[in-house]
């Protein structure tokens, strides 16, 4: 964990120069944990959304992927601005577990991609909504609390859309009785 913290601080110094060199300890452990996790999750959503746009089989999945890229890039920019105020920089790359998830989808195309991607989006957005709601209720930093509360509605829309697309895939894949 110490090497990860050191890497994050070094990245912050390189990315933000002297302005970020002074450590800001005003964030609670929960605020820092939420910020770190949400930044990595946001990066993953953009990466997977890009794959969906390019490799998805159905127009619904491609459109959903484009929405993930657009919405999560905007959310990421908001969070990164808050994080930089507190000497936190976005991760330079995806954490190993998320990189593994993305790598699995990289090799898939068409219906095979859609079938793997949509259940992942349902699960990821359920987790994200829970984390954002918790931050809105229990976070210490008012700006992060407001950020979480403001963006939970967008994540809920994503979840509804992901569930609808996934359900339509399930129906389409069910063999019809004669």
Overall description:
The protein is an all-alpha fold and about 180 residues long. It has one domain (about 1-15, about 30-175): Ferritin (Up-down Bundle), CATH 1.20.1260. It contains 6 helices and no strands. The protein has helices at about 1-15, 30-55, 60-85, 95-105, 110-140, 140-175.
Secondary structure layout:
Blueprint: H1 2-16, H2 29-55, H3 59-85, H4 96-106, H5 110-138, H6 142-173
Q: What would you call the structural class? A: mainly alpha
- Strand portion: under 5%
- The number of distinct helices, counting runs of at least 4 residues, comes to 6
Largest sheet: none
Please name the CATH architecture.
Up-down Bundle
Features:
single chain; about 180 residues; mainly alpha; Ferritin; 6 helices; disordered N terminus
Brief overview:
This protein is mainly α. The protein has 6 helices and no strands. It starts with a helix and ends in a 5-residue tail after the last helix.
